[in-house]
Design brief:
468 residues; mainly beta; Jelly Rolls; 8-stranded antiparallel sheet; 35% strand
């Protein structure tokens, strides 16, 4: 029977022109409850394709079995009402909504008698990770897309004549409880009322390992406007490190490290290339600005909720992985949601956290499997959540190596290997795959292999340093 005939038969059954009723799918996800997203039990049955944000339509999905299911993740908040569609022009998709522990929250096969598309609406009970899981009713190969929306709610804000949407009345300190009702300096808006942290009896910033300063959650260990304590501003030219203000020069001399530096991104609120070359400005979504937060030094590019962010600079002849190079940066992880996270990729090299370690893969282009793989052996397996660590990947002659926190001896021989050229340089993401879920800072690329002493100087005993 052809696919078209089968779907016609299903449509007849739905419309009542047949006595054969379409059976309700009874898929059982209880075997996955409590399992990690990247556990063998899960990955044998569910392929996670990526993360969606509210308002997103997924990339085109070519579903086939096996594995039985495909899925997208998203980050939701308590009381969010989510609206999910699975749409297909040649199939009969079924969609399930699961929480991060694989507990079933809802499912749908057909949105109505006149369609095979699936539609599901649910109100979330908790903050956290959720999964949109789907398959074809008959497990046949189909094409489909997933749409995710958050439905408006009364607490989103009010419509004011000539002002429009004014903010979230539950949490916006400028519109707390009502449009235009601003909380006093140092107060937070919670549940539509203004409170100080002491009034509230708990610290909403503690989950982020930060401190509440006024209406912001900040890292007083590195925020130059709140260094050590709220309101302590470092002098011009100083940075905050370890909760104390210090001159940038006190963090180590940059003598010699400017040699061969072809790109350097401080990521202090922009993607400007501060190296002497100065031509590799990173672009975010058509704009030179992206998401930024308190960094290891100054600010860092930040992605706390996996919205597939990336900063890109075009292909460049002076960033070539077929000759000596060094790539160095500070990284910070926000979560263990994904089995891998991409820090840098340009069609020749892919630097990522894969499984339990930082790795680098040398590749021909973004579609090919790695030709050479080097896995960090520093002993800093799976760098801890909410902890900064330093990554260096280098090539010297035919040897490629990787160090984390200036430790490790992992290397590989690349004699005779030719790697990809002519691809954009992506910081924080790869062409296909998961983004870096956290922060990246002080990102540099050299057209030479740094010496061991220069690598140690760059790490500076864990204090780091900033270049030009």
């Amino acid at each position: 029977m052809s696919r078209q005939v089968a779907l016609f038969a299903v449509a007849l059954a739905i419309s009542g022109c047949s006595t054969t009723e379409k059976k309700e799918p009874n898929d059982d996800f209880r075997a996955f409850v409590g399992q990690a997203l990247d556990s063998p039990t899960v990955t044998a049955q569910i392929e996670v394709l990526g993360n969606l944000s509210y308002g997103n339509v997924s990339p085109h999905v070519n579903y086939s079995n096996p594995p039985r299911y495909r899925a997208f993740t998203f980050i939701g908040s308590a009381s969010d009402t989510v609206d999910i569609w699975a749409r297909s022009g040649n199939g009969d998709p079924i969609v399930w909504l699961l929480d991060g522990n694989f507990n079933l929250l809802g499912k749908n096969d057909d949105a109505s008698a006149g369609t095979n598309d699936a539609h599901l609406t649910r109100t979330l009970s908790n903050d956290g990770l959720y999964l949109i899981v789907f398959r074809d009713y008959e497990l046949w190969s189909i094409d489909l897309s997933i749409e995710l929306e958050r439905l408006p709610k009364a607490t989103d804000g009010g419509i004011v004549p000539d002002l429009g949407y004014c903010g979230n009345l539950q949490t916006d300190p400028a519109n707390c409880g009502a449009c235009g009702h601003a909380c006093a300096q140092g107060q937070l808006c919670y549940g539509g009322e203004c409170f100080t942290i002491r009034d509230m009896g708990f610290d909403p910033c503690s989950a982020e390992a930060k401190v509440a300063c006024g209406t912001m959650c900040v890292d007083i260990g590195s925020d130059s406007k709140n260094c050590g304590i709220c309101g302590h501003v470092c002098a011009q030219g100083q940075i905050c490190h370890g909760g104390g203000c210090q001159e940038a020069g006190d963090m180590g001399s940059a003598d010699g490290l400017a040699s061969g530096l072809v790109a350097y991104w401080k990521l202090d609120g922009n993607g400007v290339d501060s190296s002497a070359v100065g031509t590799h400005t990173l672009d975010w979504g058509g704009s030179p600005h992206g998401f930024y937060d308190t960094g290891f030094i100054g600010q860092a590019m930040s992605e706390p909720d996996a919205s597939n962010w990336t900063l890109v600079t075009p292909p460049a002849a002076d960033i070539d992985m077929n000759r000596d190079f060094t790539i160095a940066f500070w990284a910070y992880r926000e979560s263990s949601v994904f089995s891998s996270e991409s820090a840098f990729e340009n069609g020749a090299i892919h630097i990522l956290r894969y499984g339990n370690a930082i790795s680098t893969w040398l590749i021909q282009d973004p579609d090919h499997a790695p030709l050479v793989q080097v896995v960090d052996n520093s002993g800093i397996a799976t760098p801890a959540i909410h902890t900064w660590f330093h990554v260096i990947v280098y090539r010297s002659g035919n040897t490629v190596g990787i160090k984390v926190d200036n430790s490790g001896t992992a290397t590989a021989d690349v004699t005779g290997k030719v790697f990809g050229t002519g691809f954009p340089n992506r910081v924080g993401h790869q062409t296909y795959g998961y983004p870096w879920l956290g922060k990246l800072d002080e990102f540099g690329i050299w057209n030479r292999a740094l010496s061991a002493s220069e690598m140690a100087k760059l790490y500076n005993g864990g204090a780091g340093m900033t270049l030009p």
